[in-house]
Amino acid sequence: MTRLHYFKGRGRAETTRWMLAINQIEFENVAIETPQDLADLRASGKLPFDQMPLLEISGLNLSQSTAMIRYLARLGDLYGDSDTDAVWCDMIAGAVADFAEASMQAAFQATDNIAKAALCTRFSKFGPRFEARLASNGTGFCVGAGLTFADVVLVEALSSYLDWCPDILADTPKLDALYKRVIAEPGIANYLTSAQQLPIAGDQYVIDVASVLQRALPAHMPDPGRFVRAQA
Ligand SMILES: N[C@@H](CCC(=O)N[C@@H](CS)C(=O)NCC(=O)O)C(=O)O
């Protein structure tokens, strides 16, 4: 069985979940909910860099979400048809990772307005560039004539932006069309309506992360050092 170990939330594991979904690979979310869960996982020797997520698939223990995404892209023939396609996939996926950082941080911000402002700023930098790439490629996809993992990770990031800012694609019609196309892919549509997709991150997710990693909460939260003290 394919197993994905991570906090009980989307975070840095969500792109891998979308890539498993597009490949229609069944998987189990293994929630790491306590410092002991993480200590046990580290003691198992399956985390080469002591970090989550961990993807157990086909006898492999995969670390680093970028490596997982590319492994699943090769598995599903989602890396384009040439070296040029592949390098475009990598460039777009790299830009998407930079773009997605703002949505990853949103729940950790002091207020929803601060989070939304950060997302708008980030979108105003990257949104038009992704739209321009779709226009120049001219197929409705980011790379080549068909779906690649660049489309999947881009749409996963856009879906996080849309959770916070539902109108964000109003002025980028090609991105909007790509978004609609990818979420209608059978594996993705199935995942998005399944109980496997964990809820959008809120305060409880922020608390869970700090608790598992025994690190400080954001300064605006009550008793931000509560889990750091627990470590002493
Ligand atoms: N580049 C890595 C980042 C992994 C990462 O920072 N994981 C965090 C949780 S989101 C972690 O395990 N932190 C504990 C540590 O670094 O010791 C990836 O995308 O997989």
Task: Characterize the structure shown.
The chain is of the alpha+beta class and 232 residues long. It folds into two domains: 2-75 and 191-228, Glutaredoxin (3-Layer(aba) Sandwich), CATH 3.40.30.10; 83-185, Glutathione S-transferase Yfyf (Class Pi), Chain A, domain 2. It contains ten helices and four strands. The protein has helices spanning 14-22, 35-43, 65-75, 83-105, 112-137, 149-164, 173-183, 186-192, 203-213, 226-231; strands spanning 2-6, 27-31, 54-57, 60-63. The chain has a four-stranded mixed β-sheet with strand order 2-1-3-4, covered by helices on one side. α1 links the parallel β1 and β2 (27-31). α1 packs parallel to α3 (65-75), α4 packs parallel to α6 (149-164) and α6 packs across α7 (173-183). The model has no long low-confidence stretch (mean pLDDT 97). The structure holds glutathione. Glutathione is lined by residues 11-12, 50-53, 64-65, 213.
How would you concisely characterize the structure shown here?
The protein has helices at 14-22, 35-43, 65-75, 83-105, 112-137, 149-164, 173-183, 186-192, 203-213, 226-231, and strands spanning 2-6, 27-31, 54-57, 60-63.
- CATH class of the largest domain, please? Alpha Beta
* Strand order in the sheet with the most strands: 2-1-3-4
Bound molecules: glutathione
| CATH-derived architecture of the largest domain | 3-Layer(aba) Sandwich
Tell me about the largest β-sheet. 4 strands, mixed
Termini, distance in Å? Answer: 38 Å
DSSP summary, beta strand count: 4
Sheet/helix structural class: alpha+beta
Find the CATH superfamily of the largest domain: Glutaredoxin
Q: Shape, please?
A: globular
Provide the residue-averaged pLDDT. Answer: 97
What fold name stands as the CATH topology of the largest domain?
A: Glutaredoxin
Report the radius of gyration as a whole number of Å: 18 Å
Helix count equals 10
